[in-house]
């Protein structure tokens, strides 16, 4: 009964947060309202919510990643695949290495493997938060498609990097050769399983519908089970459940082009998935706010272990990490655009140099959100010998702080940068 009551209360909090956001005289990102509401709940709750990392990961990540893959515009994804891959893969690795070393230097008591795990979970961006902010200002569609494609792929790449870092933290060893081989198995196996689960399920349910009729409720339920099936099957074969969920979502959009589902099924399924996305994202941020007071308390104790006497260092850790993330992203976006212009020039085509506002907007739009939070909350509680994972609470606090600061910064700065911003057209536009 207690677990059921907790779930119902969290859902009620998500509803209230949406109302409060609409009532606010100033445009405030919904995640910030949900975090604040969670903190208020924590102040009146008798005991904090006990989160099981494995259950939390399974409940929230597969459906969110699946839905991202399902809904992302495929035309924009493939048209700008070079730019998207540079951001989603190259920038993630660049961020993990750079921020991991920086965090370990700034907080020597945090083990390097844990610092890399933290860097990995703050590398993915959140397209939902960016879209919510950009709704107030017209955003170039191509830039939005690039950000959406980046967020889809860097969710997977960032969380896979986190998996390696956590394994190194638990075992105390890391082999680059073994890591490459493991990554190939994780990636290829996860993608194949995700595609196979979606297509196999689609073929089976279409056969049933043709011979025995279609039941809308069953069709919707099948779509809800696919991401969990793909994730669990991939994990069973020691592949990446994260990539399996993403691949299943991408495959779902193509499987749906057969048009065999009834219009009623599509409309109702769309409404159900909108509800799932709203509820899951909302619960994640409300839980962050509810966990925040105890995270701050435990992280404050770790500050003293790091040789700093005042809790203000917690804010310094967050601001320094956020600034470092923004600087690395700005440098990568600038270099990526220069490389794109270089390739264009080699083809004999002339392209005008992008404005600094374009680089700044693409950098500031790297808002962290639900995937970052879900990932950091799944850090294991203990090492293999049963001792607590060093720096876990401090890592969660820094990640939570980065989410909040990046949301605020984008809310304030992005609308101004986006006003009148135009992107240079690709040759395919001509």
Q: What's a concise summary of this model?
A:
With 430 residues, the chain is mainly alpha-helical. The protein has helices at 2-23, 30-44, 53-71, 74-79, 81-106, 112-121, 127-134, 141-171, 176-212, 216-236, 241-255, 263-305, 312-346, 356-364, 370-377, 392-418.
General description of the model:
With 430 residues, the chain is mainly alpha-helical. The chain has one domain (2-429): Na+/H+ antiporter like fold. Helix content is 77%, strand content 0%. It is built from 16 helices and no strands. Helix 3 packs across helix 10, helix 6 runs parallel beside helix 16 (392-418) and helix 13 packs across helix 16 (392-418). The longest helix is centred in the middle third of the chain and has 43 residues, at 263-305. The termini are far apart.
List keywords for this structure.
430 residues, mainly alpha, Na+/H+ antiporter like fold, 16 helices
Q: What is the overall pLDDT average?
A: 81
| Second rung of CATH, namely the architecture | Up-down Bundle
Major sheet summary line: none
Class by SSE composition: mainly alpha
Number of separate helices: 16
Tally of discrete structural domains: 1
């Amino acid at each position: 009964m207690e677990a059921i009551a907790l779930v119902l209360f969290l859902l009620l909090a998500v509803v209230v947060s949406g109302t409060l956001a609409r009532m606010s005289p100033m445009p405030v990102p919904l995640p910030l309202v949900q975090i604040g509401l969670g903190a208020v709940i924590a102040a009146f709750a008798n005991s904090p919510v006990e989160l099981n990392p494995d259950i939390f990961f399974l409940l929230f990540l597969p459906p969110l990643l699946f839905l991202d893959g399902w809904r992302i515009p495929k035309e924009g994804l493939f048209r700008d695949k070079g730019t998207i891959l540079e951001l989603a893969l190259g920038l993630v690795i660049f961020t993990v290495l750079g921020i991991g070393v920086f965090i370990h230097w700034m907080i020597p008591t945090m083990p390097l493997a844990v610092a890399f795990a933290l860097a990995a979970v703050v590398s993915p961006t959140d397209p939902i938060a960016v879209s919510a902010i950009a709704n107030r200002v017209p955003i170039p569609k191509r830039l939005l498609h690039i950000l959406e494609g980046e967020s889809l792929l860097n969710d997977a790449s960032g969380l896979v990097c986190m998996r390696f870092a956590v394994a190194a933290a638990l075992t105390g060893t890391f082999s680059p050769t073994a890591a490459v081989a493991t990554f190939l198995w994780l990636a290829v196996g996860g993608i194949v399983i995700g595609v196979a689960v979606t297509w196999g399920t689609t073929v089976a349910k279409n056969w049933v519908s043709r011979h025995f009729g279609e039941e809308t409720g069953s069709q919707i339920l099948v779509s809800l089970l696919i991401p969990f099936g793909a994730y669990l099957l991939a994990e069973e074969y020691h592949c990446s459940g994260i990539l399996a969920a993403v691949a299943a979502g991408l495959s779902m959009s193509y499987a749906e082009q057969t048009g065999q589902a009834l219009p009623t099924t599509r409309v109702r399924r769309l409404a159900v998935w909108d509800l799932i996305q709203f509820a899951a994202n909302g619960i994640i941020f409300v839980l962050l706010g509810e966990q925040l007071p105890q995270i701050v308390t435990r992280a404050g104790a770790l500050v003293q272990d790091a040789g700093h006497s005042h809790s203000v260092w917690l804010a310094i850790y967050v601001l320094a990490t956020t600034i470092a993330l923004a600087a690395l992203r700005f440098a990568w976006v600038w270099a990526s655009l220069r490389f794109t212009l270089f390739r264009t020039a080699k083809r004999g085509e002339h392209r005008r140099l992008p404005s600094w506002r374009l680089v700044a907007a693409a950098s500031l739009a790297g808002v962290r959100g639900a995937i970052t939070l879900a990932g950091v909350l799944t850090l294991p509680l203990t090492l293999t010998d049963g001792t607590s994972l060093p720096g876990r609470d401090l890592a969660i606090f820094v990640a939570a702080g980065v989410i909040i600061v990046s949301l605020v910064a984008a809310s304030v700065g992005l609308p101004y940068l986006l006003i009148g911003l135009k992107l240079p057209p690709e040759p395919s536009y001509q």
